[in-house]
Amino acid sequence: MTEQSAQKTRKRVVEQWETISVTALPPGWVNVYELENEGGAMLEVPCPAMLLQELRSVSHCYDELDENGNYRCDLIDEEPLEPPYQRRVEAADMSEGWVQVASDIANFFRTELAEGPDAGTVLLTASVLGEILDRQALGHEIDDENDNMEVDL
Fold it and tell me: What DSSP string runs through 101-114?
């Protein structure tokens, strides 16, 4: 591949996450977005739910530069993955009539409880929630009283 054609083509892998479960959050949970054009002001939007997702496939793409200077994705192939699937938990955002992953929005900052006696409590990160789900799937139990994870032998 020549240097000129390498500048016109780029290869990438796109993960295809599938939502397998939606858990509604009670009122008071919000997604916080940073408004860069407003001097870093924060915008709070109600967070409707948490999404449990599995990585079911990956797409291999080549993005080619067209005559207008825009990249166009040419899908080479989609590679289905085998169980057990990698899992993640993501905060949801509701916009334009559908639910999407909040962290896919560029200015997403965090999810937190904005009302009530525990206001300011930040929701567990997706990686921590994912680890809890993985441990539960392996037969580990969560000790809520001491916030410890115990192995059920």
Answer: EGGGSTTEEEEEE-
Helices assigned H by DSSP within 2-148? 3-8, 126-137
DSSP H or E run through 11: strand 9-24
Task: For 52-92, write each residue's pLDDT tens digit.
Answer: 999 999 998 888 888 888 877 776 788 999 999 999 999 99
CA distance readout (Å), 25 to 28, 50, 60, 93, 132: 8, 7, 35, 12, 18
The whole-angstrom separation of Cα 46 and Cα 27 is: 8
